[in-house]
Amino acid sequence: MSSSQIGFLVPLNRNLEEEEEDTSTPKLPISTGANVIGRSSLSISDKRLSRKHLTLIASRNGSADALVEGTNPVVVASGNRRRKLRTGETAIITNGDILELIPGHYFFKYVTMAGEKCGENGNSMDALNTESNEGSLSRKRMRPVTEDEAFARKLQAEMDNDALVEEKSLVTVKSGYSRASSLSIPSAHKDAEAIRHFSVPYDKSPLTFRLLRVKDLPAWANTSSVSIRDVIQGDVLIAVLSNYMVDIDWLLSSCPTLAKIPHVLVLHGEGDGTLDHMKKNKPPNWILHKPPLPISFGTHHSKAMLLIYPRGVRVIVHTANLIHVDWNNKSQGLWMQDFPWKIQKDLSKGCAFENDLIDYLSELKWPEFTANLPALGSFNINSSFFKKFDYSNAAVRLIASVPGYHKGSNLKKWGHMKLRSVLQECIFEKEFQKSPIAYQFSSLGSLDEKWMTELASSMSSGSCDDKTPLGSSKPLIIWPTVEDVRCSLEGYAAGSAIPSPQKNVEKEFLKQYWAKWKATHTGRCRAMPHIKTYTRYNGQNLAWFLLTSANLSKAAWGALQKNNSQLMIRSYEAWWSSKLASEDAFICLGVLFLPSPVNCHGGFSCTDNGSPPKNECGLSEESKWKRTKLVTLNWEGNRSSDSCSEVVVPLPVPYELPPKPYSSEDVPWSWDRRYYKKDLYGQVWPRHVPAAV
User: Which residues contact 491 (CB under 8 A, 6 or more apart)?
Assistant: First the structure.
């Protein structure tokens, strides 16, 4: 029987509007019978698209059976309903339905010649037969998978939690593919792309944090994400950059503003050749300082920035080294808040955030220098200088670790004992009693069960509103599998920044803790985590959340000694064959989000000369405080229902909660094992065998 054309696949842009006629992707004619859609027919080089990605088997009545034959899923959208199809699965499409050949990419509208949904009068029995025979149809049409497609087989499988996904969409009503109400979405399929709706008003931004932008992700996955240029901006007078790894060439090219700042202090953990290069290539007004370490074999690992402006100071705590891959290819987090200069009568006033910040800065012991700030005067820039700012509206608490033997009044000043003491002061909702805890990080130290119990005791601190303790709960460790790394944006190369040896990872007692890195809702399944987070949660509600540079190790958190009267923080275990292993180093800094009262006014900005926003609740000065309710992006409540006593704060936790435990087939990543199964780039691991431990 001869075939005849019945319609087209019309390319759409991200707003689901038809592309211009002269674009590189033309309309694809669809004829009765089998129509093969793939990389070759579309003239698209993206290897996520197979050469035979999708087959449309069109009927004379205008409907078509869509059979997925490639390695990655295809989304079929009809009205408010979206169905994600895996390899071998089929769906019936009709006029006006939209195909996403890769979820979130390559949109096409199916348009029949008649311009109407002919399929509505089609033979329903034929449709049933098609569905029932999909297994045999798939077997007939499946072909040998080429090598490059095999590498890509899992590239987006992580995004496919369920076959049926109903979610909010970016698309316009004009296209017939309208935004669905969140109230109509079944909880089991709630917003697989939840970050696309993450938006926080400026006056509430210090209450949450941001993920760093990842260059190879779709636009929706970078919603409200930030780059280094978004952070270092405006009329900066002094910049203090605290980090471990610093690529000075990348830093200056990625953030040209830095070259214009009169005074820049770089606190770093670099050594040898890298430090020599930094000294030769730094601008003349830059000061480099490697903080002294009282215990051998450690390093400076905290990641923070302090930016001084004419109006105040911007405090930034984040998780990325100052290198290209950390700010472009990995899952990372960043928090920042601006604080004004103190008025003269308040110079002697302090607060908990100020005390924690000054204590931490004092340990860095940088060389004091003098800066003449226009209209402000001349200042000695040391740790005490930062007492000149008003931190009374700080939205978080600082949790730091510094090297040494801490006892007496300093026992609860650093590490996990600091976290314990802060949590002990807090009152939490009853729902968090015995609730689970998650540890997520990028390097694993040499652990034992005794220390894990010690750390869990600190992480479990706090009381319910009825004064009963929250109680302990077994934590889960969120850690990438070998397959996660192999199929990541960087392939096996991503494993270089997850530097944990086999002897640490494959301890028998750790098997009970392993949980998957699953980040579908933020689009970061393939962006391997360098972010470090710890949290206590119940469903999508969070008791507290810690964003930090501290990995899971005694070196980062400290270990109690001498009948629990002394906390020792050191890092000899981290330096075993390469400086990358020092990700378990011991000068660390983090920010702790709590359900604390916050100032309803807020909104101060160092870069905005306008007045801060007015009190939205109309509260008096005496009653301007609200209590925060911390939730994940997958929380199902009404975020617009802030009352004058509570404000809902969504945190972009990049991974899914509750985490899914490893299956029997999952193998935790360790960077000194050999892996012969090739990654997307055709590489095995290691490319170079590391030196013997």
Answer: 485, 679, 680, 681, 683
Measured CA to CA, the distance from residue 335 to residue 431 in angstroms comes to 27
| Cα dihedral 242/396/426/445 (nearest 10) | -30
690 close to 498: Cβ distance less than 8 angstroms: no
What span, in angstroms and rounded, lies between the C-alpha atoms of 470 and 396?
A: 21
Side chain identity, residue 566: Q
Closest alpha carbon to 443 in 553, 334, 328: 553
Q: Alpha-carbon distance 501 to 516, whole Å? A: 19
- Among the residue ranges 74-83, 514-523, 597-606, the one predicted with the least confidence is 597-606
* 318 membership: H or E segment, kind and range: strand 312-318
pLDDT tens sequence across 606-655: 998 654 544 443 333 444 567 899 999 999 887 665 566 788 999 999 99
User: Please, how many CA atoms are within 13 Å of residue 212, restricted to the half-sphere of its CB?
Assistant: 29
Catalytic residue IDs: 301, 530
Contact 447, 510 (CB under 8 A): yes
Tens of pLDDT, residues 112-135: 987 543 333 433 333 333 333 333
Nearest to 399 by CA among 596, 542, 208, 588: 588
CA separation for the pair 19, 479 (Å, rounded): 42
What sign results for the dihedral spanned by CA atoms 14, 20, 22, 25?
A: positive
Beta strands 437-440 and 475-478 are parallel
Backbone angles phi, psi at 413, to 5 degrees: -95, -20
Pairwise CA distance, residues 65 & 134, whole Å: 10
pLDDT at residue 528 greater than cutoff 60: yes
Q: What is the pLDDT of residues 152-202, one digit of tens each?
A: 344 444 334 433 333 333 333 333 333 333 323 334 344 578 999 998 887
Q: Which residue has the tokens 């699965």?
A: 89
Assigned token pair, 37? 């859609």
**pTM for the whole structure:** 0.73
